Amino acid sequence: MTELSGKVQTVLGLLDPEQLGRTMTHEHLTMSFECCYFPPPPGEEEVAKNPFQMRHMHWLRQNPYSSHENLLLQQENSAVREELLAYKAAGGGTIVENTTAGIERDLPALRKLAQETGVHVVAGAGFYVDCTHTEATKSMSVEQLTAVIVGEVLHGADGTEIRCGVIGEIGTGWPITESESRVLKATAHAQTQLGCPVIIHPGRNPAAPAEVVRILQEAGGDIGKTVMSHLDRTLFQDGELLEFARLGSYLEYDLFGTEMLNYPYNLEVDMPSDSQRVQALNVLVREGYEDKIVVAHDIHTKNRLTKYGGHGYSHILKNIVPKMLMRGFTQQQVDKIVIHNPKRWLTFK
Question: Which strand ranges, in their side-by-side order, compose the sheet holding 92-97?
């Protein structure tokens, strides 16, 4: 593993970690989210068929998963290319692209986007949530799944020679299914072999992140080199957030720019505002976790691109960072969150 040790693996090859710059640790550049389509409210079916009109923009922000067209991000490579150029112009350096098997990962497209924009792109290995697992995947043993993940990092994925540089986002629901549990164990085994970063999509329940950590730890995973995603839609009380933080993973707030009244996948969830996300980060910093925070937008639908009136990949750098500085974060703390923590996480042991 000497070739990978001390390096970050992008779709264009190995990179010195110091070259990463400002990094968004959880984005998608090309994927399909049709696996998670949610029917529109009764009587709103016609709006869902053609939501990309100015008069429907509010509806689409509140119902992004109820339009088939909105879930096909892979149709927007040209718009994403322009977004990445804007991200670079705003000071961005790297995107961690979390699309895994089952949601139309497209490594050649990622490589082309990296070549054309100069933004470093790190691709994800492994498998998403159970409903995207093929029958072949569900029939694999932990050892077979481990071999697939290791191969995607060492040799290339999806029949290409393009190598993944992170395992994930590894998807779990709630409760965690048997197939998801095997994938988690395989993730831990692969991480042990490779010394690589891992990123997790936990189920939509406050108990889910800790349960994932338990399974990974029992299988030998390195929690200190693992990111727990989506905490902004999963842990809402300061006490439960700090209790989870003590387990030692990186803590990711990755839905910046997403504000909706009713979160369709779990109506018990009150999706926070960006200001509330900044407040949660402030709690973590005050309690000594500034070395464990990473941030992103998790763009995975068309409406979040600027082409369709969304915030785009530059929102954190342009809007959230100034708000953090206004709310008492130091520049050193901000740099840890957007530069140094991602760099440390992404570097192979």
Answer: 22-27, 92-97, 120-125, 166-171, 198-201, 226-228, 250-253, 293-295
- Do the Cβ atoms of 211 and 180 come closer than 8 Å? no
- The count of residues in the chain is 349
**CA-CA distance, 306 to 162, in Å (whole number)?**
29
CA distances from 93 to 147, 196, 267, 290 (A): 31, 20, 36, 21
- Burial of residue 161, with CB atoms counted within 10 A of its CB: 0-12 exposed, 13-18 middle, 19 or more buried: exposed
In this prediction the pTM is 0.98
List Cβ neighbours of 163 (8 Å cut-off, separation of 6 or more): 9, 11, 123, 152, 153, 154, 155, 156, 157
Amino acid identity at 344: R
Tokens at residue 101, please? 């098997």
SS3 97: strand
Closest CA to 312 of 12, 19, 47, 81: 81
User: What's at 76, amino acid-wise?
Assistant: E
Measured distance CA(319)–CA(252) in Å, rounded: 18
* Beta bridge partners of residue 24, listed in sequence order: 95
Region for 3 from its dihedrals, namely left if φ exceeds 0, alpha if ψ lies in -120 to 50, beta otherwise? alpha
Among the listed residues 65, 182, 61, 44, the one whose alpha carbon sits nearest the alpha carbon of residue 126: 182
What confidence tens digit (pLDDT) does each residue in 289-319 have?
999 999 999 999 999 999 999 999 999 999 9
The whole-angstrom separation of Cα 58 and Cα 297 is 19
253-264 residue pLDDT tens: 999 999 999 999
CB 301 within 8 A of CB 258: no
Neighbours of 243 (CB within 10 A): 12
Angle at 166 between CA 135 and CA 101, to 5 degrees: 20
